[in-house]
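Re: weekly structure request thread

Next one in the queue (148 aa):
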Amino acid sequence: MGNIKVEPIEILLVDDNPGDVRLVIESLKDGKIANHMNVVWDGVEAMDFLRKLGKFSEAPNPDIVLLDLNMPKKGGHEVMAEMKEDPLLKDIPVVVLTTSDADLDIIKSYDKDVSCYVTKPLDTDKFIEAVRSISSFWLTVVKMTEGS
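Done, posted below.
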């Protein structure tokens, strides 16, 4: 039996809240899935990262984007709209991870072909549980095609 090389999952986390970023990183660190986390702090940085512009010219292609909606400069809905219009980015799975449970935000997100919408729980333990649920489903159950 030959050795199987397992590449880590490339995750792009787009969130302007340092506390939430720390919780997501800690939640995924304890999991059994090899992953590499890149963090950007607003939607402008997210699009630069995805398009490999400026300081992100060497950025890896993410396998999945965890996206907050309410951010400075450019919000999550704008990021999703730009990704959907870009043939190189439209197939990257996007999981919205946000504090908003507003019906309009949920509807607008699914209209932009978001893969999943998760409301951030206010309780720390439930927040960690939610992130681990995303990890166990999107990083192990869902098989992504080569190159996606």
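The first strand starts at residue 9 and ends at 14. Strands lie at 9-14, 35-40, 64-67, 94-98, 116-119.
Next request, please.
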